[in-house]
Predict the structure.
Amino acid sequence: MKVKTSITISEELLQLVDERARQSKKNRSDFIEAAVREFIKHLMRNEQDARDLGIINRRAEHLNEEASDVLAYQALP
C-alpha cells in the first residue's frame, strides 16, 4: 500500500530528481522511492559488512593460527 507524504528538499535537488526521473522514464514519486530503497539497501549492506568485519577481527588470532598451520603443512617435503 502506498501512502501519500510530504517532504521538503532544495529546489536544486528537486530539479535533479526531475531530470533523472525523466531520463529513467519514471514519475517523481517512483524515482524517489527507488532511490530511497537503494540507499537503505546500501546502509544495510554497510551495517552487515561492519558486523562481519567485527567477527573477523574477533577471530583474527585463531584464523591466523590456522593459516600458519596450513602453510606449514604445505611446506613439508
